Amino acid sequence: MGLAAVAVVAISAFVSPAQAAPDAARLAAAQEAQERGAEMFAYDQAAWHATDKFRADMAAAGKQGAGAGLALNGYVVEPQDGARLLVSFYGEVGGRLVARARYRVAENRDVEGGLLAEGEDAVLSPVALRMIAARDLAMHRMQQPGHGLCSKSPANTLVLPPRADGVIPAYVMTSTVNAKEFPAGGHYRFDIALDGTLKSERGFTNSCFPIAIGKRKDRTEAVFMTHLLDSQPTEIHAFVSRNIPFPLIVIIVSNGEIWSSSNGDIAFVSDVSALK
């Protein structure tokens, strides 16, 4: 029996006996989680690469500090034409939020754009303004008890555009402290309704779960984690697995099932008893 099987057998003592294979509803939920995780990763990557370009443009313009001369409040990522994403760095001018720099990020992560010159169109779209408001509400909710992060570094916020029903998902996530570790715990989702109020919220774990990444030469084949709050993996599992160099094996406590999430792809593997 391999080391992976030994690990699963040890964990099986703490999970419920497996039932039948996943039904159509849970398979559909896993597929939706996979697609949401891919979307989250695309928006996160767009923000990252646009920020790098923005900092370079600021330095080239001789500006010091994150928002010197630009009255910056933050950034927002929204869909544009085709598969490109539009990243706008915005600030408050005359009592309203306006864009101060804009970047278009392609699927291959090519970045076009720059600081806006005086007189250029700086109006933020209605969708962008709703997404900014959703982020602000999510951050306000994070100040309430029961919303702890798993690192001391500032939270990573990730806001997706409105769904078909108008709801905006706003994620507040534990950020990485160093490149050798990625947090699988300490992440939250706040669903903001069309009228700007909080529709629902959830956490994804009951504890912190830092994943040591190390280097590929350490021969790590996979990392195992149990999951208590759902009967199949979530978008957080899909997102996390896109940020680590090996598969994430998720063992569902309520039903004893084993799922894998490898580079964002979620698949049912088997149940714990099959590996005994």
Q: How would you name the oligomeric state of the polypeptide chains in this document?
A: single chain
- The secondary-structure class comes to alpha+beta
Major sheet description = 4 strands, antiparallel
DSSP helical segment count: 4
Distance between the termini: 9 Å
Strand content: 25-35%
Number of domains in the coordinates? 3
Query: H/E series, N to C?
Result: HHEEEEHEEEEEEEHEEE
Low-confidence stretches: 1-14
Biggest sheet, spatial arrangement of strands: 1-2-3-4
Would you spell out the secondary-structure blueprint of this structure?
Layout: H1 3-12, H2 24-60, E1 72-79, E2 85-93, E3 96-105, E4 111-115, H3 126-141, E5 156-159, E6 168-173, E7 181-183, E8 187-192, E9 198-203, E10 210-212, E11 223-227, H4 235-241, E12 248-252, E13 257-262, E14 265-271
Parallel strand pairs: 11-12
Antiparallel strand pairs: 1-2, 2-3, 3-4, 5-6, 6-8, 7-10, 8-9, 12-13, 13-14
